[in-house]
């Protein structure tokens, strides 16, 4: 199997049908918040691969991926059943959307985009910068980390799915508060880009990761 074998250090629930997968860091693996990896494993003789964006603010002895569980999926339910000690393979890191600790940030997330958004907000605070988080999801994940960010002074806004007016208002409110990082599926990231432009900003300056 291609990729680097890594050990599953821990698996924990971080929301409704959402887990955080903590993996041991292989030698030479140096990733920044915003980047992603290709995870490989074999299930019932079939090799399965998926891309996951890092959800840890830094890579130390371990790093974290946040995985939404699709009950009908061929990989995520298997990952959710792991207990730690198993081996999976990773390739990467990949991606040019990174946070290197240089600016204030506005992290905007739809659904599974919360992982990298929270990681970037935490990394900004660790670097002594301000952070705002705008997160749209009917069943929020990583609520403990969002609460910790809010307690540490971050502006955290959580919106229901479909609240287009609320999303536009939140984007406009934070338009001048830092570098925009946007993570989510196509409809969501396009809505955020439109909201930036409608508020008088330039969506071309936003760092946007479209999950498809």
UniProtKB/TrEMBL annotation:
Question: Which stretches make up the FAD-binding FR-type domain?
Answer: 1-100
Instruction: Name the PROSITE patterns on file.
Output: FAD_FR
Q: Which InterPro entries match?
A: Cbr1-like_FAD-bd_dom, FAD-bd_FR_type, FNR_nucleotide-bd, MRET, Riboflavin_synthase-like_b-brl
Among CDD domains, the record links this protein to: FNR_like (cd00322)
Q: Which residues cross the membrane?
A: none
Task: Supply the name of the protein.
Answer: FAD-dependent oxidoreductase
Species source reads Natronoglomus mannanivorans
